[in-house]
Hints:
Radius of gyration: 16 Å
Structural class: alpha/beta
Order of helices and strands: EEHEHHEHEHHEEH
CATH class: Alpha Beta
Protein name: NAD(P)H-dependent oxidoreductase
Number of domains: 1
Organism: Pigmentiphaga aceris
Strand content: 5-15%
InterPro entries: Flavodoxin_fold, Flavoprotein-like_sf, KefG/KefF, TAT_signal
Bound molecules: flavin mononucleotide
Domain Flavodoxin-like fold: 57-217
Number of strands: 7
Pfam families: Flavodoxin_2 (PF02525)
Helix content: 25-40%
Shape: globular
CATH architecture: 3-Layer(aba) Sandwich
CATH topology: Rossmann fold
Number of helices: 7
Amino acid sequence: MNxxxxxxxxxxxxxxxxxxxxxxxxxxxxxxxxxxxxxPLLQSSNADAAPNTDGxxxxxxxxxxxxxxxxxxxxxxEVAQKAPNxxxxxxxxxxxxxxxxxxxxxxxxxxxxxxxxxxIYPTHWFNLTPLLKAYLNDVWGAGAPPELRGxxxxxVTTTGGSERDYSRExxxxxxxxxxxxxxRASANYTGMKxxxxxxxFGASGDSESLGRYQEALRARLx
Length: 222
Ligand SMILES: Cc1cc2nc3c(=O)[nH]c(=O)nc-3n(C[C@H](O)[C@H](O)[C@H](O)COP(=O)(O)O)c2cc1C
């Protein structure tokens, strides 16, 4: 259980730390279906903050193009912000709507001591968010930053479709592993290790489901 407050600040953005809330998180599995009953969700925060990245072993990039409408990702951000030895950045808060001119050198510097890069985003049109994609285009460029080599890539995504939908027999006809092929290929291309994705299928905004999602994320970020 990590109950420490983190000193959230980021020289690249003028976003102060948002409120930290404590929550009771239990142990959880890897893939979580919606609707499961779990301990009640505690209060939420806007989660815009970016912790000090010095020496952080886990870099978390969270993105949502419509944060004001988000329920599920917002709940995940609360846990991600408090992950041990991790740096959390809310992409839209840090970078706004800018789709280019990221500071490639600064981002590469962040990768040096990192062991794991975590992307948290809602699946929209079976893809990354525009800002995450723009970040990869700009920072990873046409070639792979060598600092990524050997590091882990963990994808955390929420979907409207159910686990059944994401199956060969389901309405979509593709598994989530197949849908995530571009990121798996990107991991291969950059020399990263593609970790088993954490997928919240049929993501539901009821407090019991949110609590379960939070538990699962907490376990993976421990
Ligand atoms: C523009 C848009 C596109 C979406 N595309 C997909 C999709 O391709 N596959 C899917 O399973 N869900 C899709 N959804 C549902 C979202 O994934 C779901 O609402 C989201 O993960 C819930 O998280 P949030 O509360 O943080 O927004 C889409 C939703 C929107 C608004």
